[in-house]
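Propose amino acids for all 130 sites.
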């Protein structure tokens, strides 16, 4: 008889049956959150790891960057085939949709940093940069 274990995400409540061949996930495939078991010093933490970014290693492996809500430590875990790709793309595109500065000030900020500071308007649309 096949033994199944039920995984329940402590963050979003998503559930999945894991068969005996599957290992316990280090993060929820639905919301990408995990449990921070130990901190940098090896002490128990138990805080919730929330996804804050995505990065791609030199080996082309995608990893989820997580921050612990309790201690603030940052970790990275490799993505799995089961991960919610909509959530992954949402996290990956967040810096583009919510830049850390007002977009209306782009020209001014560019000038302050020593650039030309002029955004060319018009011209050919969807032109790729070389």
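Proposal:
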């Amino acid at each position: 008889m096949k033994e199944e274990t039920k995984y329940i995400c402590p963050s979003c409540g998503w559930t999945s049956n894991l068969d005996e061949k599957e290992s316990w996930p280090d993060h929820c495939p639905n919301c990408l959150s995990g449990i921070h078991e130990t901190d940098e010093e090896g002490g128990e933490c138990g805080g919730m790891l929330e996804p804050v970014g995505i990065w791609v290693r030199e080996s082309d492996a995608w990893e989820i960057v997580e921050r612990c809500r309790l201690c603030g430590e940052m970790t990275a875990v490799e993505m799995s085939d089961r991960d919610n790709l909509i959530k992954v793309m949402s996290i990956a595109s967040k810096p583009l949709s919510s830049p850390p500065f007002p977009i209306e000030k782009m020209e001014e900020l560019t000038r302050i940093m020593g650039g030309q500071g002029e955004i060319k308007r018009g011209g050919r649309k969807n032109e790729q940069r070389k």
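The radius of gyration is 20 Å. The longest strand covers residues 44-56.
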